[in-house]
C-alpha cells in the first residue's frame, strides 16, 4: 500500500456520499517492519505467530495472522463464514487466487477468527468463500458478454443469501448468546447488500475487459 490516492479512491466507493471526509487524509503512518508474503514473529516462550499476505481480497493489504500451535488464523476482513465477502480489488478472480494460496499455505488450519462474524471452522469458511466468487464471476461474465444491463445482471446472478444464511454460518452463530433471530436477520441483510455490491464490482471489471 504505497499509493495513498489510489487507496482513497478505492475506499471512497464505500463512503455512501461522504467521500469528502477522505480529503483530510494527507498522509499515513508507515510501518517499521514490512514483508512481501510472510513473516515469523517470536513472542517468547516458544510462541510463534506467522503473518501472511496471500494477495488481494477485501483490500490490497490484507494480512492473516496464523498461530501454528493453535492451528488458528485471525483473518480480519479476508475470510469470514458463509461466503460473506466484500470485493474491492478487480473483481472475484484475484480473490479466489489469494484464497487458494491460503489453502495451500495453511494445510493444518482448523479455526478462523474473522474481523466480523463468529469464530468457526476455517477450512469450511475458505472453501465456501472460494465457491461464491467463482460462481459470481462466471455469471456476471456471461451477463456482460450477453449485453445485459447492470440491473438485468443483478436479476440474473444467483443470490446465495436470498433464502437465508448458509448452514455453516448458522452453526457457528449457534455458539453465541445474542438473540439468534435478530443476529441472523441482521447478517442476512448485510450479506444481501454486500452481494449486490459484489455484482457491481464484478460487472465493472468485466466491462473494462470488454472495452
Brief description of this entry?
By secondary structure, the protein is an alpha+beta fold.
Topology:
Elements: H1 4-12, E1 38-42, E2 48-52, E3 64-67, E4 72-76, H2 92-105, E5 111-114, E6 120-121, H3 122-145, H4 150-156, H5 167-173, H6 180-210
Parallel strand pairs: 4-5
Antiparallel strand pairs: 1-2, 2-3, 3-4, 5-6
Tell me what the structure shows:
- This protein has 211 residues and is of the alpha+beta class.
- The chain folds into 2 domains: 1-30, no CATH class; 32-210, Ribonuclease Z/Hydroxyacylglutathione hydrolase-like (Metallo-beta-lactamase, Chain A, 4-Layer Sandwich).
- Helices cover 44% and strands 12% of the residues.
- It has 6 helices and 6 strands; from the N terminus they run αββββαββαααα.
- It has helices at residues 4-12, 92-105, 122-145, 150-156, 167-173, 180-210; strands spanning 38-42, 48-52, 64-67, 72-76, 111-114, 120-121.
- Strands 1-2-3-4-5-6 form a 6-stranded mixed sheet.
- α3 (122-145) packs across α6 (180-210).
- The longest helix is centred in the C-terminal third of the chain and has 31 residues, at 180-210.
- The model has no long low-confidence stretch (mean pLDDT 88).
- This is Glyoxylase-like metal-dependent hydrolase (Beta-lactamase superfamily II).
- GO terms for molecular function: hydrolase activity.
- Keywords: Hydrolase.
Amino acid at each position: 500500500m504505497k499509493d495513498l490516492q489510489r487507496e482513497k479512491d478505492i475506499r471512497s466507493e464505500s463512503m455512501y456520499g461522504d467521500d469528502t471526509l477522505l480529503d483530510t487524509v494527507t498522509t499515513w503512518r508507515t510501518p517499521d517492519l514490512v514483508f512481501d508474503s510472510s513473516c515469523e514473529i517470536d513472542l517468547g516462550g516458544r510462541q510463534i505467530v506467522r503473518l501472511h499476505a496471500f494477495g488481494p481480497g477485501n483490500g490490497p493489504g490484507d494480512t492473516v495472522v496464523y498461530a501454528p500451535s493453535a492451528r488458528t488464523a485471525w483473518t480480519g476482513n479476508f475470510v469470514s463464514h458463509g461466503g460473506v465477502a466484500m470485493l474491492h480489488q478487480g473483481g472475484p478472480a484475484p480473490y479466489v487466487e489469494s484464497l487458494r494460496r491460503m489453502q495451500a499455505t495453511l494445510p493444518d488450519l482448523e479455526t478462523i477468527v474473522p474481523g466480523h462474524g463468529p469464530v468457526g471452522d476455517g477450512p469450511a469458511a475458505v472453501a465456501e468463500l472460494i465457491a461464491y466468487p467463482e460462481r459470481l464471476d462466471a455469471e456476471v461474465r456471461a451477463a456482460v458478454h450477453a449485453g445485459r444491463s447492470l440491473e438485468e445482471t443483478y436479476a440474473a446472478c444467483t443470490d446465495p443469501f436470498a433464502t437465508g444464511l448458509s448452514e455453516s454460518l448458522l452453526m457457528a452463530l449457534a455458539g453465541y448468546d445474542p438473540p439468534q433471530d435478530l443476529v441472523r436477520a441482521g447478517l442476512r441483510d448485510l450479506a444481501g447488500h454486500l452481494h449486490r455490491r459484489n455484482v457491481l464490482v464484478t460487472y465493472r471489471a468485466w466491462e473494462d475487459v470488454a472495452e
